[in-house]
Write a structure and sequence with these properties.
Strand order of the largest sheet: 7-10-13-16-19-24-27-30-33-36-38-39
Number of helices: 4
CATH superfamily of the largest domain: Hexapeptide repeat proteins
Strand content: 25-35%
Number of domains: 2
Helix content: 10-25%
Oligomer: single chain
CATH architecture of the largest domain: 3 Solenoid
Length: 344
């Protein structure tokens, strides 16, 4: 990365306050105080670092007005967070691209491949797979029989994609993720459990990102479906026959039990747990560590708690909950006085 403030401002359609010719070669967080790089201010609680950082360029919102002198050159944009995201995407796109098939990888002869394929060492591509253009498969990846992978998709080291799964275009599957392992299906039989064969698959639509060590189980029958634009953090568990609607995002350690249907544009905090066979409406937000035991039918609401209910009611209840020790003490004192009065 080697850009002038002028070039960055032109790319972001921003306004320069300071030296347009100053150059940056790296990026850093504003609070780290590294000398020379580009940084940004999107959260007001970090405003104090604008005046102490050694960064050369700071991207800020257009309404930012410094209260004292700023050493760095400022670039004012409509949305600093979106601007740094766009700049980092540009930076990523300029990195050298992996190409070619490593001699210590293995693809079966029936595999169909597009242009500009990369397959790293010790990766294995099974029979009848279809790989699109510009697919990148890093070392130690397993791709099972009949898997389809769309254009521009990246599969990082150690990911496993079981047979019959379909991965869309522009997806990213991070290290250690498992797509299409068996759903948790067992039938009680004479004091034992008989395994129910899981004969379905997993479908990831376009622009899905799956975090490291996340697992998505194949359907018992039919498909477990992850909708277009869904973003899954690390260490998430999606069970068999779950459907996740478009552009839903989930933070780490969330677990979704089987056959639950989740709407579009939902947002789940970390460690959310949802029991099976429920329906979650579109645009629902679930706070971290919440437990969902019943369907949520109303769109665009926020819930919290375990069992979860609307966040405003939860927060009011929590105020009382925090006061329980003192309330119990007061109650005991009142009971003691009442007994004393009755004895008199």
């Amino acid at each position: 990365m080697d850009f002038t403030a002028k070039a960055i401002a032109e790319f972001l359609k921003g306004e320069i306050v300071g030296d347009p010719e100053i150059r940056v070669h790296d990026v850093s967080k504003i609070e780290e105080g590294t000398t020379g790089p580009l940084t940004f201010l999107a959260n007001p609680k970090y405003t104090e670092y604008v005046y102490s950082t050694n960064a050369s360029i700071i991207i800020v919102n257009r309404d930012f007005l410094p209260s004292k002198e700023v050493k760095a050159t400022l670039i004012k944009v409509d949305d600093a967070y979106q601007a740094i995201a766009a700049l980092l995407q540009l930076y990523e796109s300029l990195k050298p691209k992996k190409t070619g098939i490593h001699p210590q990888s293995w693809m079966e002869k029936s595999v169909q491949t597009g242009d500009d394929l990369y397959v790293g060492a010790y990766a294995y591509i099974d029979e009848n797979c279809i790989l699109g253009n510009n697919v990148k498969i890093y070392p130690h990846v397993f791709v099972g029989d009949g898997v389809e992978i769309g254009d521009n998709t990246i599969i990082y080291s150690g990911a496993k994609i079981y047979n019959g799964c379909k991965i869309g275009k522009n997806c990213i599957i991070h290290a250690g993720a498992v797509i299409g392992s068996d759903g948790f299906g067992f039938a009680p039989e004479s004091g034992d459990y008989k395994k129910i064969p899981q004969v379905g698959n997993v479908i990831l639509k376009d622009n899905v990102e799956v975090g490291s060590n996340t697992t998505i189980d194949r359907a018992t029958m039919g498909s477990t479906i992850i909708g277009k634009g869904v973003k899954l953090d690390n260490l998430i568990m999606i069970a068999h026959n779950v459907t996740v609607g478009e552009n839903t995002v989930m933070a780490a350690q969330t677990g979704i039990a089987g056959s639950t249907k989740i709407g579009r544009e939902c947002m789940f905090g970390g460690q959310v747990g949802i029991v099976g066979h429920l329906e979650i409406a579109d645009k629902v937000k679930i706070a971290a560590q919440s437990g969902i035991g019943a369907s949520i039918k109303n769109e665009n609401i926020i819930v919290q708690g375990s069992p979860a209910y609307q966040v405003i009611d939860y927060q009011r209840s929590y105020v009382y909950f925090k006061k329980l020790p003192s309330l119990v003490t007061r109650l005991e004192e009142l009971e003691k006085k009442w007994k004393e009065i009755n004895r008199e």
